[in-house]
Input
Amino acid sequence: MKIFSSHRRKLEPKRRFGGREFQNKVKAQLNYKRVFNQPRVGWFNNLWYKIGLGSKIWRWSVFVVFVLIFYFLVLSPRFVIANIKVSGNSQINTQQILDVLNHEGNNRIFLMKKASFFLMSRGMVNKILTTNIPTIKSVTEYKRIWPNSAELTVEERTPGFALRSNGKYFLVDDEGTVVKPLSDPEGLILADDTVIED
Output
């Protein structure tokens, strides 16, 4: 048994690096150029750099500003219409109109209250009032006052006569529209429905 085997013996540098095979490898690698692949960056990150917000501090600053704007415009009570001035009503109590608007205004669309300065349009107010208070014909004027007030003018239906049908009384306006049920005709002209139906 050999104590010093030949495969563990160090090769001389000339034999190790002077061989034809090694020299061919060295010549082949002389023209090698390493290709530098730039890491791919998404369009969102590119956008940050293009508008000058490449730093994380700037990104967080923009995020905080966005959250504050979102809070004040959507969640904050600052822009919820709280002061409403009503005119044009004689049959309906002003407090009744305000109660209906406050009740409906507390409902939410997504996260924003319906009574928000940005959501409470003339069409929405008209729909709320004519649906909940049949005596109101329409909202003729509506004006929002920054940041949380509004003024509106309502047009009420003119009572025409009382209709008695199947033992019940109904108020009919001057245009012939059945407005609401009545408990008592209260001195109105009374018309009887001869065809008994609900």
Observations:
- The beta strands are 83-87, 108-109, 112-113, 136-145, 149-156, 159-165, 168-173, 178-182, 190-192.
- The chain is about 35% helix and 25% strand.
- The first strand starts at residue 83 and ends at 87.
- The chain has a mean pLDDT of 79.
